[in-house]
Amino acid sequence: MKPYPPDHRLRTAVVGYGAAYNIGRQHLQEMEAAGMVPVAVADTDPARLEAARADFPDIQTYRDLTELLARSEVELVTIITPHNTHAPLAMTCLEAGRHVVTEKPFTITTDQCDRLIKAAASRDLLLSTYHNRHWDGCILEATEHIKAGRIGQVVRIDCRMGRYGRPGQTWRGSKSISGGILYDWGAHFLDYAFQIITAPMVEVAGVGWEGHWGPQTTWKEDANEDEAFVLVRFEGGQWLTLRVTCLETPPAGTFWVTVVGTEGTYRFDLRDYELTTLKGEETVTVRGRNRPNQSHCYYQNIADHLLAGQPLVITPQWARRPIHVLDLAGRSRLANRSLAVEHP
Length: 344
Ligand SMILES: NC(=O)c1ccc[n+]([C@@H]2O[C@H](COP(=O)([O-])OP(=O)(O)OC[C@H]3O[C@@H](n4cnc5c(N)ncnc54)[C@H](O)[C@@H]3O)[C@@H](O)[C@H]2O)c1
Fold this sequence. Notes:
344 residues, Rossmann fold, Dihydrodipicolinate Reductase, domain 2, 2 domains, 10 helices
């Protein structure tokens, strides 16, 4: 990809300016901090366009992406919409010759990732996914301890999230829109895990349970699983597990990651970590607070890549790995057996 002149200011847009977390505002603020110029917002909901204008008075607003692409000279478009719309909206932007960032999860299926990767490569366009949590304080802290050898050789990672209770009634609870219970935080957990275990993946097994909460939600037979579990085996014998549930409030809290090594265990949540090492017969536990998140590094890397030819951190191939695992887990569950990995 030919870099822009270093003083070029990339003109950007977002599609989707949702109210749930006001994450669209975060994107535009981080783009600005990276020297980009937010130019336009598209959202099908006029109230959200009004919210965007209140946050960014000079912003152009559109009800429809096609109109934005036709009328606005933006160079980079970020897709911040429900999961099942990422692939078609990203393809529309690539076909219009724009660089594309999708929110996580990149897409729902591996096949959708492959089509987008091919479309971007054939047009020499940037394609990436907003894995802002790649720079979370908890994973920056964890990788420093683990790479320093404090738990010896990594054997296993367990990622857990859950609480007992009926899921919300928004699109996040619909299987066909969200992709399933694993696709929201699962994408973040897998991005964490792949920073710790870098070996190629070998096979994926998935299981799940449904039918308890579904009938009580808006989505009924289209509801997400009540809980789902994935096991990934890596070359070299390491393995990781991921479980997201609405059937249990685990004693250790709603979210945690455990990394087991040959000489210790490292456990973290978003705020704290706990490092337990074995010294002969003695067990020593050290607890600490994670460092602050560095989410802004995401768009800084996009700018450095497009303007100065720096390597892209979240390549589409990196973003495809979590999707491949989640896609294979769903297919494995239906097939009642583990499945070989096609993109190790
Ligand atoms: N990286 C993070 O930390 C993080 C945090 C929150 C959300 N997200 C992700 O952001 C995405 C959106 O989540 P959200 O919480 O903002 O959801 P949301 O429901 O609050 O907002 C989605 C917005 O998209 C708009 N929309 C839907 N289809 C559209 C279309 N075809 N064209 C234009 N606008 C459309 C809706 O009107 C809505 O305003 C998801 O992928 C979610 O996983 C990521």
